[in-house]
């Protein structure tokens, strides 16, 4: 069975195959594609960033990272959300800068001032690790560093900074505000799964 170029080959194949054989070949090719796509989307149940192993929420889709700066990436969807949310993990080693500097950088990614984005910072100790949770909502400036940002009104950010022996791990969920708020429990459970 050769599935490559199937859509181009079908008109020629009709002359040489019975309709039932052609149907079976097409069905097998589509099934193989769906299985491969499902396996790719499923991704690992857990993943390691620095010294921590985090357990991925089952409903969140694994995404292959496109940048060496990103250590893991997930996609979060909801039926009523206009677009998906994105979870990204970063690790830069011991030279990552302090927690406060990174919190300020995250909050500075909103167009509105800090007093208008409902910014909240919470420190927590889980196991031996200190975690700083950050949340905010407003017009998020999305984009890669150095590129012109795209304003995303009605977005929210939920971040976690995990201080480890090898340096801090940064995890950030951004997306439509309702989706991000609804994913908070799963996000925190994922973060804390790697610290116990």
Counting helices, strands and paired strands, the structural category is: alpha+beta
**H/E series:** HHEEEEEHEEEEHH
Portion of residues within helices: 25-40%
Low-confidence stretches: 4-15, 27-40
Q: Can you identify the CATH superfamily of the largest domain?
A: Mog1/PsbP, alpha/beta/alpha sandwich
CATH class descriptor of the largest domain: Alpha Beta
Describe this structure as you would to a colleague.
The structure is a single chain. With 196 residues, the protein is of the alpha+beta class. It folds into 2 domains: 36 residues; 150 residues, Mog1/PsbP, alpha/beta/alpha sandwich (Protein Transport Mog1p, Chain A), CATH 3.40.1000.10. It is 31% helix and 36% strand. The protein has a 7-stranded antiparallel beta sheet with strand order 3-4-5-9-8-7-6, with helices on both faces. It has a two-stranded antiparallel sheet with strand order 1-2. A hairpin with a 7-residue loop joins strand 7 and strand 8. Helix 1 runs antiparallel to helix 2. The longest helix is centred in the first third of the chain and has 24 residues. The termini are far apart.
């Amino acid at each position: 069975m050769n599935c490559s170029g199937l859509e181009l080959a079908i008109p020629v194949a009709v002359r040489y195959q019975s309709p039932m054989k052609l149907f079976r070949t097409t069905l097998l090719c589509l099934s193989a594609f769906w299985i491969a796509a499902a396996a790719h989307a499923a991704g690992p149940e857990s993943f390691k960033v620095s010294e921590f192993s985090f357990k991925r929420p089952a409903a969140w889709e694994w995404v292959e990272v496109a940048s060496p700066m990103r250590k893991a990436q997930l996609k979060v969807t909801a039926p009523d959300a206009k677009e998906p949310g994105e979870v990204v993990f970063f690790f830069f080693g011991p030279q990552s800068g302090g927690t406060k500097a990174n919190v300020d950088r995250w909050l500075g990614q909103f167009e509105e001032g800090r007093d208008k984005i409902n910014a909240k910072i919470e420190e927590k100790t889980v196991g031996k690790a200190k975690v700083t949770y950050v949340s905010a909502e407003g017009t998020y400036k999305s984009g890669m560093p150095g590129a012109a940002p795209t304003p995303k009104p009605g977005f929210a950010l939920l971040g976690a900074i995990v201080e480890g022996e090898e340096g801090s791990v940064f995890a950030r969920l951004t997306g439509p505000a309702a989706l991000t708020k609804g994913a908070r429990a799963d996000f925190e459970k994922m973060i804390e799964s790697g610290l116990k």
